[in-house]
Amino acid sequence: MNTPDYSFVDLPIALGSSTNFSYPTWPSHLDHILISDDLFTDFSKPNSEIACIRIDDYMSSWNTYNNNISDHRPVGLKLEVDAIINTTLETKSLDKNLIKVVDVLGRETTSKNNTPLFYMYDDGSVEKGIVVE
C-alpha cells in the first residue's frame, strides 16, 4: 500500500516471481523497504533500483547460505541522488570543542571520505557530516 507520503519501493519484488523473494523457502517476500516522499524523486531516477540481493548465488548452494548466514536474503535499495554540496567542517563555533568523531555504529574513528560521521562536541551538540571526494 502506498500513500502520498510513503511508498513500499519493493512492491515489484513482492508481486513478481517467487525466485526473487527475500524468504525463498516459504516462498514469501517478508523484508520490505518503505521510503518517505522526500526520496520519491531520487527513487524515480534511472540509476535507482531495488533488488533482493541473491547472495546465495555466490555460494555453493542455498542450503550453505541458509545454514551459515540467514534464511532471508537482504533487500537493497540504491538511490541516484543529486550532487551533494561539500561543506567544510572548519566553520565550527569557537564556543565548542570537538570531543570525538564516531561512525554510524558509534565506533570512534577519524575523518573518512564518503562515510557518514557524527561529530560530538563538549557542549553536547552533535553534527552529522559526510565529506564527498
Note the topology.
Elements: E1 6-8, H1 11-15, E2 34-36, H2 40-43, E3 49-52, H3 62-68, E4 75-78, E5 98-102, E6 117-121, E7 126-129
Antiparallel strand pairs: 1-2, 3-4, 5-6, 6-7
Number of helices: 3
| SSE-based structural type | alpha+beta
Sheet with the most strands? 3 strands, antiparallel
Computed CA radius of gyration, to the nearest angstrom: 20 Å
Physical arrangement of strands within the biggest beta sheet:
5-6-7
Strand percent estimate: 15-25%
Q: Write down the overall mean pLDDT.
A: 86
Low-confidence segments: none
- Proportion of helical residues: 10-25%
Give keywords.
133 residues, alpha+beta, 2 domains, three-stranded antiparallel beta sheet, two-stranded antiparallel ribbon, 3 helices, 12% helix, 21% strand, extended
How is this structure best described in words?
The structure is a single chain. The chain is α+β, with helices and mostly antiparallel strands and 133 residues long. It has 2 domains: 6-78, no CATH class; 89-129, no CATH class. Helix content is 12%, strand content 21%. The chain is built from 3 helices and 7 strands; from the N terminus they run βαβαβαββββ. It has helices at 11-15, 40-43, 62-68; strands at 6-8, 34-36, 49-52, 75-78, 98-102, 117-121, 126-129. The chain has a 3-stranded antiparallel sheet with strand order 5-6-7, with no helix packed on it. It has a two-stranded antiparallel ribbon with strand order 1-2. A hairpin with a 4-residue loop joins strand 6 and strand 7. The radius of gyration is 20 Å and the shape is extended. The model has no long low-confidence stretch (mean pLDDT 86).
